[in-house]
Specification:
With about 210 residues, this protein is mainly alpha-helical. It is about 75% helix and about 0% strand. It has helices at about 5-25, 35-40, 45-50, 55-80, 85-100, 110-115, 120-145, 155-180, 180-195, 205-210. The termini are far apart.
């Protein structure tokens, strides 16, 4: 794919990409045509194909775009976390960001995975890598907490991270389906209670984080 050589070209490419990401999230990839993307971005077909040779290429770039926007900030936050209080705040931020999007489209990465995992192997692998990075970041938080005595020695950060990410995705789905933030809030509160059941002796602020 050609990279824009001018500022105007970069702006056009970014507008096409942002429009595609929004429409794919709101309507789905299959239900969104190239023509709809072009109309939303106010771009010509030649401009689109200059930067994205096919719709498949556009989808791959949207996966990267959504990963950067909606998982990238989480990785940065999780990199600094090592406490129960921090995990509680992280969960709260996920609920708040979904509510700010009016509970539309579910998780921007999860919704792509649900649609594309069985229809395009290349996209499945791309999405699996995003989820792998996300899960690994949660695992590292729990590993740091275990090393600090905030998790019991028998706690498995890998399994707890997988359970946590599954709860996050389930919360996104049910809140989107019901147009009610409560299922996501309940799922994450239950997840926090489960994680706290593995708390070590050095809980510290963990008791204050329990809700």
């Amino acid at each position: 794919m050609a990279e824009p050589r001018t500022e105007r070209g970069r702006e056009t490419r970014e507008k096409i990409l942002g429009t595609a990401a929004r429409l794919f999230h709101e309507r789905g990839v299959t239900a969104t045509s190239v023509e709809q993307v072009l109309a939303g971005a106010r771009a010509g077909k030649s401009q689109l194909y200059r930067y994205f040779p096919s719709k498949e290429d556009l989808v791959s770039e949207v996966i990267r775009y959504q990963s950067d926007r909606h998982v990238g900030w989480q990785l940065a936050v999780l990199e600094r976390l090592d406490s129960w209080e921090g995990l509680t705040a992280y969960f709260d931020s996920l609920v708040a960001s979904h509510a700010e999007r009016a509970l539309i489209g579910g998780c921007p990465i999860g919704s792509l995975a649900a649609e594309l995992a069985d229809s395009n192997e290349a996209h499945r692998r791309e999405l699996a890598e995003v989820f792998s990075l996300w899960e690994a970041a949660i695992e590292q938080v729990l590993a740091r907490m275990k090393a600090a005595g905030k998790l019991r020695p028998d706690a498995d950060p890998s399994r707890l991270a997988a359970t946590t990410l599954a709860a996050i995705q389930g919360g996104y789905l049910l809140s989107t389906l019901n147009k009610d933030v409560r299922p996501m809030t309940d799922a994450l509160e239950a997840t926090m209670a489960y994680l706290l059941s593995f708390a070590g002796q050095a809980m510290g602020e963990g008791r204050g984080a329990e809700r």
